[in-house]
């Protein structure tokens, strides 16, 4: 019986190593023993295939967990069953599946489990966080972003195989992409851990992508930011995510929008809020203030005489545009009456003269408050 070399020993790493260490060691060894660098060296070719097989198992968390638990038996004859034997392979393996399907139904005439082998997995979706100003959200814009993302390998055209070579049928699942094992009275079907459900194994991995069929490259992408976006808005770029393994479809890229803090406005949906301090005299006599809008238009806000601090004035249609719709929200201006703190001698004299003429009717809220306060005090002292 041939001696099975430990996968960790083949890759010269510790059992507890992380994925980055594992990948680094594999690449170093793959470069060392690649057939292109060792033409005619059968020992180097065998070593290259062995480390490629070891990496194919250990780079996948599920396969690595199965290997850590069962060793090489996890990928032999259906792997790691606890029926006390060598698993279920060959004709007997299919017979059990046929009986299981006869009892429970299912299948589409595809043979093994009524299903064809699975293809390579679709690429992962990616996320990109973009921070923009409120003005950019108001107008919308077309911009460019740069990201590092995996794309199809040009050397092997995404196949993962060295040019001029191919793949072989997986010996574990016999090309079906799935394996079955008995657990007690039940037959459990799961994706083949050796070929990851593809039904085939690469004989000679590509020296550029190391069998992945994809490589990491910086990409420049154009992004259309529609007017009216807000924090949390998600923009989808179809097919711009991670490339699929060995020629499979790529995933999508999702742009998540975050708005920078604005020095004047706060936003709530399509409504813009701002605070405008006004002088005591404008609050008393009335007047007009000008607020510049995000569209560059100056909005004249009329201040009614006798306005109180905290009063809100709404300017219709001066807010944010409706995302992918028509119209705009409103601008809400909260008035803050500012008490003067630096008065000239003349201003103080004028205010004293005004104070001497006050009857209380000028400030009904103050008059009412102190009147109620007086009544409450008299009730307490009776």
TrEMBL record:
Q: Show where the J domain sits.
A: 6-71
User: CR-type zinc fingers: which residues?
Assistant: 140-218
Location of the protein in the cell: Cytoplasm
Q: Where is the signal peptide?
A: none
Q: Report if keyword Metal-binding is assigned.
A: yes
Matches recorded under SMART domains? DnaJ
* Location of the region described as Disordered in the Swiss-Prot/TrEMBL record: 355-382
- Start-end of each CXXCXGXG motif repeat: 153-160, 170-177, 192-199, 206-213
Q: Where is the composition biased (Polar residues)?
A: 355-368
GO process terms (BP): DNA replication; protein refolding; response to heat
Task: Show the GO cellular component annotation of the record.
Answer: cytoplasm
Cofactors that this protein relies on: Zn(2+)
Q: Where does Zn(2+) 1 bind?
A: 153, 156, 206, 209
- The UniProt record lists the CR-type domain at 140-218
Q: What is known of its domains?
A: The J domain is necessary and sufficient to stimulate DnaK ATPase activity. Zinc center 1 plays an important role in the autonomous, DnaK-independent chaperone activity of DnaJ. Zinc center 2 is essential for interaction with DnaK and for DnaJ activity.
Instruction: Give the matching HAMAP family.
Output: DnaJ
What the record says about family reads: Belongs to the DnaJ family.
Q: Which protein is depicted? A: Chaperone protein DnaJ
The source organism is Parasphingorhabdus marina DSM 22363
